[in-house]
Amino acid sequence: MKTSIDKATEGEDYDRVSFLIGLGLAISSSVFIGSSFIIKKLALKKINSLGNTRPSAGGYSYLKQWMWWLGFLTMGIGEAANLVAYAFAPAALVTPLGALSVLVAAVLSAKFLKENLNTYGKIGCLLCIMGSIIFVVHSPKHEEIKLFSELTSKLNPSSSNLELHIIKLYRYIVCLRTLW
Questions:
Q1: Helix or strand or coil: residue 180?
Q2: Cα radius of gyration rounded to whole Å, the chain
Q3: What are the residue boundaries of the structural domains of the chain, listed by start?
Q4: Phi-psi region of 108 (alpha: psi -120 to 50; beta: other; left: phi over 0)
Q5: Closest Cα partner for 100 from 159, 44, 155, 28?
Q6: How many CB atoms lie within 10 A of CB 148?
Q7: Is 29 exposed, middle or buried (0-12, 13-18, 19+ CB in 10 A)?
Q8: Exposure b/e, 81-113, CB count within 10 A at least 16 = b
Q9: Which of 65, 74, 76, 105 lies 20 to 30 Å from 167, alpha-carbon distance?
Q10: Short-list 81, 80, 174, 95, CA closest to 135
Q11: Strand partners, 142
């Protein structure tokens, strides 16, 4: 029986189960990594409130804080899940889904750290979600393209209209931001 890695090297299609496992691992990786930032920041704020020297000033008291180690472990689990996801799904799917960790951190920081997310941040989160959906829907089920003719045959102008509009919307937002 061939593994998904063998299929990728031979240019065969990924089966549905491997694809879904890789997708689930990539998304769970983003959740673990995004939440690890919040857990570690909560630990650092607790250390600062106790009057200990900040890590940026040479302090090492965070190493004695169990919550910081929990955040460190959470990040390790997320990175391990990301690594295993590459064995089940194409890299063109797994790599962009790593951006969801920023979204998770932004949402959790608003809830647990009482940080405000401005309008541009909310638009960025929405674009991140839309981009992730586009990547999942249009991600290759076939890993390797060997000829340029194969690439041009896969480019379908009608399927990229949504992506084109999203890119235009993003450019418009960036232009507005530079004007303000």
A1: coil
A2: 20
A3: 10-144
A4: alpha
A5: 28
A6: 8
A7: buried
A8: bbeebbebbbeebbebbbebbbbbbbebbeeee
A9: 105
A10: 95
A11: 13
Packing angle between helix 100-112 and helix 16-49, nearest 10 degrees?
40
Could you tell me the two tokens for 87?
A: 């064995």
The tokens of 25 are what?
């691992």
> Looking at the chain, how many residues does it have?
180
Please spell the DSSP secondary structure of 49-115, one letter per residue. HTTPPPGGGT--GGGG-HHHHHHHHHHHHHHHHHHHHHHHS-HHHHHHHTTHHHHHHHHHHHHHS--
Q: Which residues of the chain have a pLDDT value below 70? A: 1-14, 53-58, 140-172, 174-180
Tokens 């009057």 found at: 51
**Residue 31 confidence (pLDDT):** 96
